[in-house]
Each structure stands twice: as structure tokens, then as C-alpha cells.
Design brief:
Layout (H helix, E strand, L loop, with lengths): L1 E5 L4 E3 L7 E5 L3 E7 L5 E7 L19 E6 L1 E7 H10 L1 H27 L2 H16 L3 E3 L2 H8 L3 H13 L3 E4 L2 E4 L2 H7 L3 H13 L10
Antiparallel strand pairs: 1-7, 2-6, 3-7, 4-5, 4-6, 8-10, 9-10
């Protein structure tokens, strides 16, 4: 196990690439992206201090199905994928907790898909910011406007309007490459109900989030 710094935009796993390492985020957020043959991407889920990237290696599956990119720079614990497989073979409890985490990640992807199809961009943005905040353990999120728009699947002009609307309402404060949540309860009221469903499912499977639930 080695703690490393990861940078915004860094690709940890490419789509269909070999999985050399698994990552346990400590103070970073990782976006899990689906990529089309035309090169378009859509975020399916995010992973922070509650989980890991590269969980398929526990089954000996060393090829990434999705692209995993650093959304918020920070630190992560890096472990060779071969060690995840070795320990998984020896530890039933480790296999079980990773299986439960994978179920929570599937639930997140399902709810995020529904949110993308059914809800207005303000609600989706509020949900996304709340998820990031909880997984970082901080209300201060280092995030560029361009990347925020990409994750929500909207143009930069749209995300600019959304940010200013939320700031005018006193919910967030926009800085250069940074968003600070200043009224988390009101932001929660703006977010769609998918946020509560995602977090409730995680709690049901793994208990209240603590850093890092899978390795501590």
C-alpha cells in the first residue's frame, strides 16, 4: 500500500485498459465514465473516501470496463491489483465488503441515470455537489466550470447559469476553480430525491460512511 497524490484530469484506468493498480481515495474524487466508440463520455458514478477503483481485480478481472478519471485532486492509497486478488482469495470478509460496495456503486449508477433523464439541471447539480461533499468530507470542492458541465452533460454556458442561480440563492460560493457549499440544508432541498436514495442504499449495505470504509 502506498499513499500517492493524484491530479485533476488524471486517468487512473482507461476504458478496456489493463488494471495495474486499485485505488482507495482519501481526499480525492474519481469519476467513473462510460465512453462511446465516437469518444463521447457520460459519468455513471463517483467514488471518494467511501470506496475504491479497480474492485474487479478481486475476481482476477484485470481489464477496466469503464474510464476512471480524477475529478478532484487529492490523495489516494494505491495497491497493486495482484495484491487485491491475492488477499481476496484468502479473506472472505474482504470479498464480502467489496461485493457490497459494488452493489452500492450499481445503485448509484441506476439512480444517476434516472436523475439525468427526469430532473432539471439545478436539481442534478445540487445532488452532484452533495455527493462530492460527503465523499470528500468537505464543503470546499476544487472544481472547474468546464469539468462540472462535462460531468452533468451540459454546455458550459448552462453550468455558468446554474452556478450563478445557486450562488444568488445563497447556497454556494463560486471561486476560481472552486465551489464552496455555504448552506448545505438548502442545497439538499434543491437536490432531487435520488441523492437520499443513493446515500441510504450505501448506509444499508455498508453502514455510515467513514474514511476509508474498505481499508480501515
Amino acid at each position: 500500500m502506498r499513499t500517492i497524490a493524484v491530479e485533476h484530469g488524471e486517468v487512473l484506468h482507461g476504458s478496456s485498459s489493463d488494471i495495474e493498480f486499485a485505488y482507495f481515495p482519501q481526499s480525492t474524487i474519481i469519476s467513473v465514465l462510460a465512453r462511446t466508440e465516437q469518444g463521447q463520455t457520460a459519468e455513471t458514478s463517483i467514488v471518494g473516501r467511501e470506496g475504491m477503483i479497480g474492485s474487479s481485480s478481486i475476481h482476477g478481472i484485470m481489464t477496466s470496463f469503464a474510464e476512471c478519471i480524477v475529478q478532484v485532486a487529492g490523495e489516494a492509497v494505491r495497491v497493486p491489483a495482484s495484491e487485491i486478488y491475492r488477499v481476496g482469495k484468502a479473506s472472505e470478509s474482504f470479498r464480502k465488503v467489496l461485493a457490497l460496495f459494488d452493489l452500492s456503486l450499481l445503485a448509484q449508477a441506476q439512480q444517476s441515470t434516472a436523475c439525468q433523464a427526469l430532473h432539471q439541471v439545478e436539481s442534478r447539480a445540487a445532488r452532484w455537489l452533495l455527493q462530492c461533499s460527503k465523499r470528500l468530507g468537505s464543503n470546499d470542492i476544487r472544481l472547474t466550470q468546464e469539468f462540472f458541465g462535462q460531468m452533468l452533460g451540459v454546455q458550459r454556458t448552462t453550468i455558468n447559469l446554474v452556478e450563478r442561480t445557486l450562488q444568488h440563492a445563497g447556497l454556494i460560493q463560486i471561486g476560481r476553480g472552486r465551489i464552496s457549499i455555504v448552506d448545505i440544508e438548502s442545497l439538499h432541498a434543491v437536490a432531487c430525491d435520488r441523492y437520499d436514495r443513493i446515500e441510504r442504499r450505501y448506509d444499508e449495505l455498508l453502514g455510515p460512511l467513514k474514511p476509508n470504509s474498505l481499508i480501515m
